[in-house]
Amino acid sequence: MGPVAKIRSGVRRTLEQLSLRHLQPILLKAARNRPASPAVPVSVHMLVSSQTWRMGIMAAYAFEFFTGKRWEFVIHEDGSIDAATQQAIREAFPGCRVVSRAEADQVVTARLKAHPACLRSRSQHNLFLKFFDSPAFAPHPRFVILDSDLLFYRHSPEIVRWLESGANECWFNQDLKEGYSSPGTGIEAVMGFKLWDRVNSGLCLLTQDALSLDLSETFLEKCAPMAIKPNLLEQTLFAVNASKFNRGGMLSPQYEISERQFRRPDSICRHYLSTNKWTMLYLEGPPSLVWLTLVKPRFS
Description:
The protein has eleven helices and ten strands. It is of the alpha/beta class. It has a single domain, classed as Spore Coat Polysaccharide Biosynthesis Protein SpsA, Chain A. Helix 3 links the parallel strand 2 (72-77) and strand 3. It is globular, with a radius of gyration of 19 Å. It starts with a helix and ends with a helix.
């Protein structure tokens, strides 16, 4: 690394630490002041760990602020968060429900009793908690799944339209490229129907009617053994179920997924990718959200 690159890297690290230490706490405090209006009849589910729960609260805060609604948040912890931290999450985001891994294991194990491939997959990788646990704890027919590394920066008319219309549809942000466990054409040949193009599970607008344990069992029995990228089985499972249901589709490119240094100017939200995504997120996220949600409204 040359001297200029070293300087740039040092500046990025310094800015990241300033954002993490000084701006993120401001947003966590702001998140306690949730909208006073009654919660909408759609829950929002987020999987967090001991490393990502603070980021998750920030993502939840931005989601509520830019949709202008109060949602029923269900925070699923992956087994790495102790009881004291679970209480800290409740205090940081009042009104949310925190589902412990122990509680989820008991409920979902019983739910998957007749689907051994589903149960086995859930025990093998925490990402499957998004697919199997969210509908198990969703109190309404429709629900949202939101990743902790996805931040909203503008109002989301599509999400509000889906919410208020009562549409029995599924919508996803679209990946940069196909991100399935095996090539989509091979999965289509086995399953017998066409997959939606580039489904990404970082942001999912879902209906219970679209998620079939029987279909999921078939997919995991037939396609999991041939997976080239097993870490993408969970995302592929969403794609398989939504494609079979075939109501809804992909959100616009304004629901950005990218490896860029900074988001596009017209982005409604951004799902951060790449090996240094947390650096990019902390460089851009807290400063932007402090300005957009706390400072700018005072002058508008």
